[in-house]
Each structure stands twice: as structure tokens, then as C-alpha cells.
Design goal:
Layout lengths: L5 E5 L6 H12 L5 E4 L6 H18 L3 E4 L2 H7 L3 E4 L6 H8 L4 E7 L2 H9 L4 E5 L16 H5 L7 E4 L7 H7 L3 E4 L1 H4 L4 H14 L3
Parallel strand pairs: 1-2, 1-8, 2-3, 3-4, 4-5, 5-6, 6-7, 7-8
Helix pairs in contact: 1-2
Bound molecules: ligand LCLJCK34, the ligand Cc1nc(C(=O)O)sc1CCOP(=O)(O)O and magnesium ion.
Length: 208
């Protein structure tokens, strides 16, 4: 059973596999709930190489590895899961192909309807955002915290994403976010490990 609450780390775009591992390792040491491999600059060969390199590191730290966009690559590498957005194929088909054990996350943006469909199609978690202006995705559609409350009825872990920092994470957790997914707030911080600790503290200090 994977952890249903906590920090969900997403990797920054990094073309050097060596640098990617060096950046991710200190954060993995803090045992975040999940790590997603996401790289919008990599071609398919580099994505395969980087996801394969992250897998033993994640296993060593007991952190499930989620591959962004590509459930086939996730299945081929025997990763723990995949994250699918609106352009990343059919969730129902993916669930049918990978079986019940693999974690399949779904982007629901600002839509409860999308979340209902994702739940029907076999999602393991539902992700909403962007809750704040995101440096990684400045054009991302914005979502309101009330959506997290509304989605409680779907009885799936709720992920909040988009411009989340240790300073603005608490109200989202109070509104129902089980996991907060972050890229820039961690990897653009002067000390990513300290930033990761600060996110983790938000969960320890927020009760609902
Ligand atoms: C946890 C999580 N939530 C949302 C996304 C965004 O997925 P998508 O809309 O497919 O956009 P890209 O990440 O592929 O640019 C995500 N990756 N992870
Ligand atoms: C990849 C992604 N998806 C989003 C959505 O709203 O679905 S926002 C986003 C960017 C997340 O990075 P940062 O923590 O740097 O804002
Ligand atoms: Mg995607």
C-alpha cells in the first residue's frame, strides 16, 4: 500500500542523468510519499534512461516511482505507477492493461466532472490544479480550494498541484489535499532538502 498523505515530489527538467540523480537523492532521503519522473525536455531514449536510473534509487529509499505521461514505459520498467493528463491516453485502457496494483494518477485540472470520470475509469488518485501561479506551467488553468472539499465524496486520495510552496500549502491541506505535488518550490529553492522538510512539516502541523 503506497502512502496516501504527504509530499509528492516531481522531478525538474534535467537533461543530464547524473545531475538529475544528484538533485533528487537528497530529497529522496526524506522519504516523500511519491516521486514522479517528469521531463519535458527529454526524448524517448533519455526518458527511458532516466526513469530506469531513478527506479533503483527510489527502491533503495522505499519511495514509489511514478512515470509521467507514459503508462507503457512505467509498465515496461516495472515502475510503481504512471500519471496521465488529458493528452496522455485513455485511463480505462491503461488500467485494463496494467492491472489493479499499479498506481495510476489522473489530472483533473479544475473539473469535478473529470475527477468523477477518472474515478470510474480506475484512477488511484485524482490531481487538481493549478492552485497558484506556477513558474513551471505559467499558463495552467487555475483551480479553487473548494474543489478539494467537493472531491472528498469520490473517496480517492486528492493531490494539489501548481505553484505550491511551504508558505501556501497549509490551506490546501486543510481544504482536503492528501498530497501536495511540487517541482519549483523544491528544486528552485536554495536548499531543496530544507524545502522538502518544510513541506513535510505542513502535513505534521495540519490536522483535519
Ligand atoms: C500529480 C500531477 N498532477 C498533474 C500533472 C499534470 O499532468 P498533465 O496535465 O499531463 O501535464 P504534464 O505534467 O504532462 O505537463 C502531473 N504531471 N502530476
Ligand atoms: C505539471 C503541472 N501540472 C499542473 C496542473 O495544474 O495540472 S501545474 C504543474 C506544474 C507544477 O510545478 P510547480 O510546482 O513548479 O508549479
Ligand atoms: Mg502529461
Amino acid at each position: 500500500m503506497w502512502p496516501r498523505r504527504g509530499l509528492y515530489v516531481i522531478t525538474p527538467d534535467e537533461t543530464s542523468t547524473e545531475r538529475l540523480l544528484a538533485r533528487v537523492t537528497p530529497v529522496l532521503g526524506l522519504a516523500p510519499a511519491l516521486l514522479q519522473y517528469r521531463n519535458k525536455l527529454a526524448d524517448p531514449a533519455l526518458r527511458r534512461e532516466q526513469a530506469a536510473a531513478l527506479l533503483p534509487l527510489c527502491r533503495e529509499h522505499g519511495v514509489p516511482l511514478i512515470v509521467n505521461d507514459d503508462w507503457r514505459l512505467a509498465a515496461e520498467l516495472d515502475a510503481d505507477g504512471a500519471h496521465l493528463g488529458g493528452d496522455d491516453g485513455d485511463l480505462r485502457e491503461a488500467r485494463h492493461a496494467v492491472g489493479t496494483e499499479m498506481i495510476l494518477g489522473a489530472s483533473c485540472y479544475d473539473s469535478i466532472e473529470r475527477a468523477r470520470r477518472a474515478a470510474d475509469d480506475g484512477a488511484s488518485y485524482i490531481a487538481f490544479g493549478a492552485f497558484h501561479l506556477s513558474g513551471t506551467k505559467p499558463g495552467a488553468r487555475r483551480a479553487q480550494p473548494s474543489l478539494l472539499r467537493e472531491a472528498a465524496a469520490l473517496a480517492l486520495p486528492r493531490v494539489a498541484i501548481g505553484g505550491i510552496t511551504p508558505s501556501n500549502a497549509r490551506p490546501l491541506i486543510e481544504a482536503g489535499a492528501d498530497l501536495v505535488a511540487v517541482i519549483g518550490g523544491l528544486f528552485d529553492a536554495p536548499d531543496p532538502q530544507a524545502a522538502a522538510r518544510a513541506y513535510i512539516a505542513c502535513f505534521e502541523e495540519t490536522h483535519r
